Amino acid sequence: MENIQVRIWRGDEAGGFQDFEVPRQESQTVLDVVTYVQRKCDPSLAYRFACRVGVCGSCAMTVNGVSRWTCRTHVSKVAADNKLEIAPLRNLPVIKDLVTDMQEFFDKWARARGSFTGSATRKDGFARVEPQSKERKRVDAGIECIGCGVCYSACDVVTWNKDYLGPAALNRAWTLVNDVRDTARTERLAAVAGDAGCHACHTHLNCTERCPKALSPTAGIAGLKRAVLSATLAGEI
Amino acid sequence: MTSPRTQVLLWGAQRISAMVLAVCVIVHLITMIYAVRSGLSAAEILGRTQGSAGWFAFYTLFVAAVAVHAPIGLRTIISEMLNWRGRGLDLLTGVIGLALALWGMRAVIGVFSGGGA
Fold first, then answer.
1. Does the CB of A124 have a partner CB in chain B at under 8 Å?
2. Which of A11, A9, A26 is nearest to A85 (CA)?
3. A228 shares contact with chain B (CB less than 8 Å)
4. What is the predicted pLDDT for the residue at B115?
5. DSSP code, position A64
6. pLDDT band at B117, cuts 50/70/90?
7. A47, A34 Cβ separation under 8 angstroms
8. In chain A, which residue's Cα lies nearest the Cα of B77?
9. Is B83 helix (H, G, I), strand (E, B) or coil?
10. Angstrom distance (rounded) from CA A168 to CA A87
11. Which of A68, A29, A36 is nearest to A52 (CA)?
């Protein structure tokens, strides 16, 4: 088979693209291409991956201008002309080559109160949550997030407003707001309210379009907007 | 800087004013097209609007919705495009909202009372 012309980002924010040539193979993923470059062309190339099967969420990059998980993205899907441009995720500081600093991404999960707060102890029995209940279905719709950062990278509002919590953190908050066992609903709604929270979302749907797990953070954010407004009007916030 | 509570209320006000504007703009456009297609002159249109409490109330509502909706949107646009946030921006957009309300009501009064706008 022919070769793929690959341009890969090198260095930090002030870096530039470097050209490589990689043999085209059947069923080849973009992660395979990056791995080939590191093993055969330049061992100093920095990138992240772990599971290679779409579970860990660590291999997301910008591929031909689009944020994607690279381990489950086939070259045939994104590079019909055998040309690939691979860059780090947008909206995050670049440490080196394809590795971004994810700290602000995960700090925003904490700011959005993305951790469960319960009242039960280990002596209590299991909570019974009806699978068909409205709340449980909403949780199901957003719970499969793998924290890859693709939505954060695809979001224009994050680019324009560095304080914006972003789709992943708000999606997480929405799953907890709908968790009937959670006891920090009001604090969480207050944490995601306003100009840096859910109300900054312009409903561009970039996150929903790009989420590799086919989640819709936009729908969750819309739910948060309504829940926060209700809580505000009720004087809870 | 406005509190998160105020930010949420501003967001709610912008959504509600958008709903009002959607209706007002449609009524305004239909009325305008009707007036133009019927060949009404400016004097004939003024003759119908002057002294009409219904049209006065309608356009007052229209102006109020604009004065609420536009500055809130402008505040977001400026903060995102120019990275400017805080009290200065809130003050500027507040003044713009007030100016829109005053100019709008000046026009409404001019058209419905017969005084020069």
1. no
2. A9
3. yes
4. 54
5. T
6. very low
7. yes
8. A160
9. coil
10. 21
11. A29
Q: How many CB atoms lie within 10 A of CB A3?
A: 11
Contacts across the A-B interface (CB distance below 8 Å): 41
Task: Give the closest residue to A142 by CA, choosing from A166, A117, A116, A167.
Answer: A167
For residue A74, what is the DSSP state?
B
Give ∠ CA A38-A44-A46 in degrees, rounded to 5. 75
Residue B77 C-alpha, separation from nearest chain A C-alpha, in angstroms: 10
The CA distance from A144 to A153, in Å, is 18
Q: From A217, A119, A196, select the one nearest B76 (Cα to Cα).
A: A196
ipTM comes to: 0.85
Residues linked to residue A19 through DSSP beta bridges, in sequence order: A7
Residue from A156, A4, A14 nearest A74 by CA: A4
The label of the residue with tokens 């004939």 reads B44
Q: How does DSSP assign A75-110, residue by residue?
A: HHHH-TTSEEEEEPPTTS-EEETTEE--HHHHHHHH
pTM reported for the whole predicted model: 0.92
Each residue's pLDDT tens digit, B46-93: 888 899 999 999 999 999 999 999 999 999 999 999 999 999 999 999
Residue among B2, B8, B83 minimizing CB distance to A237: B8
For residue A229 the two structure tokens come to 């407004």
Is the CB of B5 less than 8 angstroms away from the CB of A228?
A: no
Edge to edge, what strands does the sheet with A16-23 contain? A16-23, A3-10, A83-87, A60-63, A66-69
Q: Which amino acid is at A104?
A: E
Chain B residues whose CB is inside 8 A of the A225 CB are 11
Q: Which is nearest to A180 in space by CA: A111, A108, A114, A119?
A: A119
Look up residue A170 and give its amino acid: L
Helix (H, G, I), strand (E, B) or coil at B40: coil
Length of chain B: 117
Residue B1: pLDDT over 90: no
Residues of A in contact with B76 (CB under 8 A): 195, 200
Tokens of A182: 């959670």
> What's the CA gap between A103 and A129, in Å, rounded?
33
